[in-house]
Amino acid sequence: MKILVVEDERRLADSLGALLRQKGFAVDVVYDGEAGQQYAALGVYDLLILDVMLPKLDGFTLARQLRASHLGTPILMLTARSGLEDRITGLNAGADYYLPKPFDARELMACVNALLRRQGAQVDALTFGNTALDLSSATLVRGDAAVRLSAKEFEVMRLLMAAGRRNLSKEAILTKVWGFDSEAVENHVEVYIGFLRKKLLSIGSDVRIASIRRLGYHLEVTEDDSETATEIRSL
Ligand code: CA
């Protein structure tokens, strides 16, 4: 998934770039409207994130020009101008969503994911924290590091990733992965959770499989990206 960020406030632009890369996206960042137009016109992006007030070419005009040239890439507009008039102008110009600054990193990620889903992007990976589970190769990926999972490890990890911070009981995991009729006992689940914890550690993942009173499991991020979030919120 490739995202273009067009934003002239360099600190915000670079924080956005870092946040999105941390979430597994390929990101290009440019700092003015003309560069944005040249990059966007390549047609290689799955999503455009445009600021409104930009040097050389403003975000409204840029969005309008891209839509006039039949570029269908989803556009998320960012701006400090949160008045109704501006939101309407942005949407009329061809933006798909309008996010007023300052925003929270989680809010931004929710918008990004919603826009990519709406576009019908094929889900080929589940992500949590800085880690992705590649569904076609059964591989856990963190940056350049990757580790292959066995069939059962993969099924357990996929359930955990899909549930995220929600608790999954051992029983549920056992039933879904091993089936009702199997001889497997809850101890099997514990063993596989142990394997997965080692593999997550081996690639430097910030994802932790937390257990609640030995009854079930959920995912947590050990060092939350709250630093980036705080930085973006403060801009
Ligand atoms: Ca600006």
From TrEMBL:
Residues 2-116 form the Response regulatory domain. Transmembrane segments: none annotated. It holds the Pfam family Trans_reg_C. SMART domains: REC, Trans_reg_C. The modification 4-aspartylphosphate is found at D51. One of its GO terms (biological process) is regulation of DNA-templated transcription. GO terms for cellular component: cytosol; protein-DNA complex. One of its GO terms (molecular function) is phosphorelay response regulator activity. The keyword Transcription applies. Residues 123-221 form the OmpR/PhoB-type domain. Keywords: DNA-binding, Phosphoprotein, Transcription, Transcription regulation, Two-component regulatory system. Residues 123-221 bind DNA. The keyword Transcription applies. PANTHER family: REGULATOR OF RPOS. May play the central regulatory role in sporulation. It may be an element of the effector pathway responsible for the activation of sporulation genes in response to nutritional stress. Spo0A may act in concert with spo0H (a sigma factor) to control the expression of some genes that are critical to the sporulation process. This is Stage 0 sporulation protein A homolog. It comes from Candidatus Avoscillospira avicola.
